[in-house]
Fold these 2 entries.
Entry 1:
Amino acid sequence: MRIALLIVSIINLLGICSTNAQDRLYSNSFSLAEVSLLDGPFKHARDLNIQTLLQYDVDRLLNPYRKEAGLPEKAASYPNWDGLDGHVGGHYLSAMAMNAETGNAECKKRLEYMLSELKACQEAHALRHPAWGIGYLGGVPKSAEIWSTFKNGDFKALRAAWVPWYNVHKLYSGLRDAWLYTGHETAKTLFLNFCDWGIAITANLSEAQMQSMLDIEHGGMNEVFADAYQMTGDEKYLKAAKRFSHQALLDPMSMGKDNLDNKHANTQVPKAVGFQRIAELSKEEKYAKAGHFFWETVTSKRSLALGGNSRREFFPSVAAGHDFVHDVEGPESCNSYNMLKLTEELFRANPSARYMDYYERTLYNHILSTQHPEHGGYVYFTPARPRHYRVYSAPNQGMWCCVGSGMENHGKYNQLIYTQQKDSLFLNLFIASALNWRAKGIVLQQQTNFPEEEQTKLTITEGRARFTLMIRYPSWVQAGALQIRVNNKPIAYTTFSFWLCCS
Ligand SMILES: [Zn+2]
């Protein structure tokens, strides 16, 4: 395949790295508000997703939190997956934050409302449950019974419930995202209070008890504590991130041993996301090796061509690999959502084009396809079984995990198209978009119909600036076949580990 790039008016020399909204946590990111999607499949998916999101009733999503906080109920909780009340509300908060940042006024209004309601819930817990609930903010059914006993090392109620830590992790992430994307200080306060609760409720547990607790699916609890560490610089959060790291995965992965056969896949991926976040912030080699090896083994040995993994939610053994062509439950959408998060982290640590090759493959072939193109419903499983079909959710009815992660997937397509590092602008993805690079005072427009056409055109439509442009040399383009033209004249370029540098 070939791709031709037409670059207009790029001036290339040293520049200074800017600071942006996502710089709050992710050093190489542009703000979602700085990157606009132009007409194409991703903009269509983002716009349709907003329409879908706005069909959900916020008071119904919030009701589990009010109920557990002992506040009067304003609306009935949603049915389905009712042992996991509150998990979708956390994803929904993330989705509102993304779309508020890119300018949707209704999403911004809903974000503000959710944060004010959640603040009331956190305050109510502190008053009503001072023995265990200061800082708590969860919709987990029977919260009082679970956490009051858990605090003293009695896990009977915790184990009888459905993955409470997985559930609360979704709201941790939602609050972090509300702050990350919009800078909302209430979100930050609620998030850090909730982190303090997580530390207090586990303070009396031994290391062995912690590891026993981590046998149960718990999302990326280690990741959110690492985020809190970055937000505050307070070592207690880094310590908590390590305490919430499951050694049954950390140890073998850090030694390059793949022990994933027959393990629940989406229980493992978020743990690795947390390992890599800890590595990014603490520079500890063990965590870095674990995050890196997990990605390598899953993408090279345990993923299908579309980038997704797992069947019936589990990683099969090699001997059971043929299950994919027979099973009605193929790769799960949440797994790819989390694998892309891990890929973003590894790319920040080492901006190698192969990470973005995987990102592109999975974004186009799995994530984008998990949305119904007309009614916007979300997909749980993408079976590889010949002549099989997929099932889509309907608003206000399905409350699966992949509905929650799906709410987020289509709101951040503009997050990784461009990144920056030191003096360089990285063009990672060939998606029609416009970058308003505020720090440089330029607007760069990318016009493409990829993959319907094998070229993209970059135009500086406003301003002048000096910077180095790094264009991903896709693995699907033969060596030497990629052409670059500046103002319609072919130019020579330099390759750095599969990146092109325009000079
Ligand atoms: Zn899922």
Note: The chain has a mean pLDDT of 93.
Entry 2:
Amino acid sequence: MYNDNPTLESLAKTIDESKQGSVYDRGHPESAEEGDRRRFYIESYGCQMNFSDSEIVASILHEVGYVPTREMEAADLILINTCSIREKAEETVRKRLQVFDRVKQQRPGTLVGVLGCMAERLKGKLLEEEKLVDLVVGPDAYRDLPKLVHTAQDGEEAINVFLSREETYADISPLRLDSNGVTAFISIMRGCDNMCSFCVVPFTRGRERSRNAFSIAAEAADLYQRGYREVTLLGQNVDSYKWEHPDTGELVSFAKLLEMVAQVHPDLRVRFSTSHPKDITDEVLYTMAAYENICKYIHLPVQSGNSRILERMNRTYDREWYMDKVRRIYEIMPDCAISSDIIAGFCSETEEEHRDTLRMVEWANYSMSYMFYYSERPGTLAARKYEDDVPLEVKKRRLQEIIRLQNQVSYRHNQKDIGKTFKVLIEGDSKRSDQAFRGRNSQNKMIVFPKAGGLKPGMYVQVRVTDATSATLMGQLTT
Ligand code: SF4
């Protein structure tokens, strides 16, 4: 199926061409045949992995004659791809299910399905608790969806939450939903073998398994041929990607995979997420430095700046180890931007340990961070072993202090870019004005600049930064 020295064309050829162009139902069927095509509506929540999975789901349903629609009221099948990372995420899902119920009242026969991590965490309980739910499908069981829809249509219990050790959906080419036609996600692995004590992912997404490297390169080549100019390689912990060639036994590490995708075409930018400080290697950093089209940006969650808390979180590294990784990144790529994930108020965290986290934000000089306060998740190691003893108002106050500091650090980080010129990939119109374009530089910073004739999304331009806020750079075209 894959030869080892694939050309761009031969790589792309392995991908199914039927999934091109705008996929959404135009709402008004062109032909009788199209008229009676069944429609599905899907909402996705949580991490990029979930949004990428929804495109796999769309592809599987498309294969059996469904077309996606943006109109919930017009759908025969309403799906919600869920997140379980915090209590709030599940509350959001329960509220959406109430909305779906009203549609179902008006359109009897409409089926409602819950996908993703909440489906995996709650399993059959969801069917008991939420009477309006017709099918429950875990992240590794999406191939079974068409059969489960039939089971539900027959009024029987439709559930599959089996977690696989092999499933990577490598042979399924995603149906790009709501795509800007410029940037796309490519899932390279599934599951996570780490057991961070606060995290549900190992229970909802199972053990780690890496996807065939050539199928990943083929998908990147196909996307390039279709006009995409940036791919983000996705995994819970991309640094532990490892795939063995079934015939040659050759081991493909994450650094090797990065190189394979970077070699698809110099105009195809490569990003990746999420890294784990214990697994990121110098080999990855030198590979990033060697290819201009591998973006100089790393998302490196720290979670806490204090070693005792990191140990309680079972993050398998301490403050010093993390700082060494950050130093290494800046040594090998001085212009690299680093972002992070931070949890405030983890079990037994003291004020002094909280200040360690504040000091880490300052020292690591993050360009931005995703910041939350600790939300105990049922079934996790922390929920079983530790008391959630930091009062809510203290969690919230500490989170506010981290957010305030991070905004100051992001502002300084962006202010330092004023006067510099960056290569920017145009992604579309600015959110604020259709007289301006938005796009990102290699450091994953959004830049807004006035339009000029002949330019369109998917083109690279040179932009000199003239001003900056903590979230956005503003600039002028130089070419
Ligand atoms: S690395 Fe830790 S936080 Fe990330 S998905 Fe795995 S268990 Fe969860």
Note: The longest strand covers residues 421-429.
